[in-house]
Amino acid sequence: MSLDLFSAKGCALEQQRFTWRDMVGKPISKLDDDAFTRVRIILMNGIELESLRFQHMAARMSRDLRLKLAQIRRTEQHQATMVNWLLGPDHSPLETTIAYEQVAIEVTAAVAQREPDPYFAQAYRFGLLEDFDHLYRYSALLDRLEGKDANNILQNYTDILPGRPTVDEHRHPQDDVRESYDRKTAAPLTKLHALMITAAEFQTHDYYMNVGPLFADPVARQLYAEIASIEEQHVTQYGSLISPDETVLEQWLMHEAVECYNYYSCVQQETNPRIKAIWERFLDYELGHFHTVAELFKQHEQRDPAELFPTALPEPVQFASQRDFVRQVLAQEVDMRALGTQFVNKSQESQASIDYRTHINSDGSPSESVAGGYVWNPGTELNRKVAVAV
Amino acid sequence: MKEQTPMGMNRTGMQMSPFDASAMTGAPASMTPATPGDDSALAQMRSTYIAESDPIGSVPIPGTVKGALTTGVSMLTGDQPQLLLDKLGERLAFERTGTRLYDALVTKFETMQDQSTSMTLADLQKIRQDEARHFAIVADAIETLGGDPTSQTPCADLVGVESMGLMQVVTDPRTTIAQSLHAVLVAEMTDNAGWELLIALAEDQNQNSLISDFTVALDEERAHLQQVNAWFQEATLGEVISNGAIVDDIGDANPSQLH
């Protein structure tokens, strides 16, 4: 069943209040909670941070909207805190990283299958295989540095296999900027998807930039530097899908719709009742934001916000293992590359990207070094009977 | 020959900034009122969370029929097989992390060509092999009891958190052999305590088939601890001071060591 944005009233802005005790609640169990509960937490934190980021940028470009932006941003800030603080401190930064890549893979794969526009669906499949390889590299690091098994986080939902090799993902910026959707003709789902995945990648990029220097191990430091650079490429790619011709209010309304859509998806599928109650509360808050921004849209643009949403919102995002789809894409598209805005065969790559990649890898490749000979094994490499004979 | 820590421009202490230190401590009373209360409010805040928190997690329900039967039967008799499984999970995790610690120490030793101790590459590789073999012993024990050696038990999760600091020290390219050995010493002391506890638990749970393997492992860990402590002392002091007698439980201490 899909969500009707215009009939659900939501919670008024002035009733959206918190205390510190409220905001900093009990975290989930890393061991007993389902991995998709953690996926939802990470995704919604990413979407909230994207809202915060956008609402700050919008304030720099629109004097009239600054106060309203600040008001809504205050709630987004406290929602982001409450959601992100659900992750317990027994997640090491590297274990959290594994969880972030699981989000990237499973959510991007779900989106790629639903995306109505074939060009954008291809963009999602392209990025998916790169995040898939990141998971493999980080899993090797988790095993060889911390002696832990990434599958304790993944709970068997996501494969740990090489994807498009990270060493080959480094491209010249001219090959990362994509075509954007047409703001007048694109399906609402296309616009929602672009914002969702941009949000997830931006959050992932910022996370790696924050935790990378916390590692003492130089292999870890270099690996985070390398993968954070790819995430910047991904933010460029996905961000460029969003039309730069949209007005500030169009973008703001779309952000609130993305939040409603995703919280609704979380409410529908959450298995932990305590966490589900948080999704329900925040869906109400976002509906309140949506209606506030819809009013501003009518007032400032003299347009009907229903123009942007001609039909009911699509069915919820599917939070489930996309293993079969990922393996199919891996088999068919791992050798694809990018050329300008298009996706091409490996042999057609630009000299600019080849030169850039050759130079940046010229002192060695952390992603190749960390995973030399690495094959995921349940219980880590040390659990292979052969390995114990060393 | 022991390592030398250099003397130089460490800026962290008050003595390095006589003028600014004097300005800081000399702030007028009107600028230095404390926040009302004392540190009991901090403790109270923690206490509230402690009272309301859920456990870290649970020991997994055995996935195999044999496993369910084994633990099911023990549960009926009032023993606590989940405690043994939790602690075996902890030992498994710690031996794995310990193996990786030794991997990092071997690399450091090979690179630095350190001469400050009697430690050799062969010594380190032997200890590393022992840790990997201990891991296999524990994995087999868990399977024997019908448990899942690929799961992360609550105590396994927590030793993962505890050992993060050890890993950071040994993998930091700036740390010396002495500094790295200090971290490894902490690991070896924990190993000893861990194996002693496992033997006691196995005896308590009448899991006699596990005791002899565990006892061999404990003997090896005692040897590791003596060796690592000796190397640490050599690297730090230039000589070994504890003449091989590690006080690893109160029963080993003589009265002159107690105060």
Topology:
The complex is a heterodimer of chains A (390) and B (259).
Chain A: H1 20-23, H2 35-61, H3 66-84, H4 93-114, H5 118-146, H6 151-154, H7 188-211, H8 218-239, H9 248-269, H10 273-301, H11 323-333, E1 336-339, E2 342-345, H12 351-360, H13 366-370, H14 385-388
Antiparallel strand pairs in A: 1-2
Helix pairs in contact in A: 2-3, 2-4, 2-7, 2-9, 3-10, 4-5, 4-7, 5-8, 5-11, 7-8, 7-9, 9-10
Chain B: H1 18-25, H2 40-52, H3 65-76, H4 81-112, H5 121-144, H6 154-162, H7 164-171, H8 177-204, H9 208-237
Uncertain segments of chain B of ≥5 residues (pLDDT<50)? 247-259
CATH-scheme architecture of one domain in chain B: Up-down Bundle
Helical percent range of chain A?
A: 55-70%
**Average of pLDDT of chain B:** 88
CA radius of gyration of chain B is 24 Å
Taken as a percent bin, the fraction of beta residues of chain A is under 5%
CATH class membership of one domain in chain B: Mainly Alpha
Biggest sheet descriptor of chain A:
2 strands, antiparallel
State the shape of chain B.
flat
Structural class by sheet pairing and helices of chain A? mainly alpha
Overall tally of domains of chain A: 1
Cα(first) to Cα(last) distance of chain B is: 32 Å
What is the general shape of chain A? globular
Major β-sheet of chain B, in short?
none
Mean pLDDT of chain A: 96
Largest interface: A-B, 32 and 39 residues
Order of helices and strands of chain A: HHHHHHHHHHHEEHHH
Q: Spell out the CATH superfamily of one domain in chain B.
A: Ferritin, core subunit, four-helix bundle
Strand arrangement in the largest pleated sheet of chain A = 1-2
**Low-pLDDT runs of chain A:** 386-390
Rg of chain A (C-alpha, Å) = 21 Å
